Amino acid sequence: MSKPATAFATPSEIVQSPLDRLKVTEIFLSLQGEARDVGWPTVFVRLTGCPLRCGYCDTAYAFHGGQWWEIEDILAEVARHGVRHVCVTGGEPLAQKRCIGLLQRLCDAGYVVSLETSGALDVASVDPRVSRVLDIKTPGSGEVARNRWENLPLLTARDQVKFVLCGRADYEWARDLLREHRLHERCDVLFSPSKSELDPRELADWIVADRLPVRFQMQLHKILWNDEPGR
Fold this sequence. Notes:
alpha/beta; TIM Barrel; 9-stranded mixed β-sheet; 5 helices; about 25% strand
């Protein structure tokens, strides 16, 4: 395979074990629809499987199935798209232990790497070059008991915290958690309305009224392509 026009290492330049493989639902090129890198052309590596069942989940198709990919082949597919940004997502990507190795190899290859994780699993072993986007589960998600609070002290300025809010009760819960743990002093904090459950204008008004140090966000990919898989 010829080296892409970007300055990233090819898979043959990265030492890896032939036994290193992950179950993958899809790998695709799109625009990053949320968080700090919103708008950038990004390769998404969606791993299969998730131990959570959030009520608003829009990727339930990634809970099961998928295909086994060797990490070398994942790297080759990512390189084929020729962009700088890579997002490893799911499902819950950290449910597969070899995700840690994939993240490291993507960083070694020179990509700008983000990880979308529920925050229910330990993020301590994630390569420090990765931007960890921690999705803290609100009461409205139905999975608030799964939050791993030990992750919060590990957050750095490279990381991000996201709250998907289903209504006013979720908003107040997230607002109080933000203030209690002073999350905005650790990293970027993002508040998003759950689609079809919370009017985005209501959430925007609440943030402004409380002068919260958070970023309001809507998912760009849903505005452009609705819930179309692979977009």
